[in-house]
């Protein structure tokens, strides 16, 4: 599959997650409808599958000497690849759903944070929302989010942590074992606002 298309699909999934994050924070019930987002990511998985099939068919037909022969070979190659495709079994869909559910838990916990009297210093609502940097154990001031796993860190500490070194996510138990790169990290403005609100409630 074309590398540019794959990169654009990856970016589109990230945009969907960011949009859902904003909908949970600022939107109404309709904008928070989960199935709408899941339908969109399902379609993205189907687009990737179709692109791979088309690329394989084009490769199989490239030796044709005439346009008619190319079309016949291309069509035959597509038919040979025909099979039932379930987007929900793809790693892209599963990863999206995992991060999707994590967002729902975090926002649900955040909504209840003001009325909870049992939140400890490190976690809010039984550990659902961590407002402390996993490296320094200090409350984050400028949080960044790892695009690959959704975990958050204090920007300065994670940048120092990965500088010149191959480091995976420092959150204990994180299933993402890939090394963190600077391009994986994005400023999390909405979470920063949440942290500020929690701090105001504690004052």
TrEMBL record:
Compartments, as annotated in UniProt: Nucleus
Organism, scientific name: Glossina brevipalpis
Pfam families in the cross-refs: zf-Nse
Domain of life: Eukaryota
Entry's family note: Belongs to the NSE2 family.
Cited CDD domains: SPL-RING_NSE2
GO molecular function: SUMO ligase activity; zinc ion binding
SUPFAM superfamilies documented for this protein: RING/U-box
GO biological processes: double-strand break repair via homologous recombination; protein sumoylation
Domain SP-RING-type: 118-200
Gene Ontology cellular-component annotations: nucleus; Smc5-Smc6 complex
The protein's name: E3 SUMO-protein ligase NSE2
Main localization category: nucleus
PANTHER family, A to Z: E3 SUMO-PROTEIN LIGASE NSE2
Pathway assigned to this chain's UniProt record: Protein modification; protein sumoylation
Keywords assigned: Metal-binding, Nucleus, Transferase, Ubl conjugation pathway, Zinc, Zinc-finger
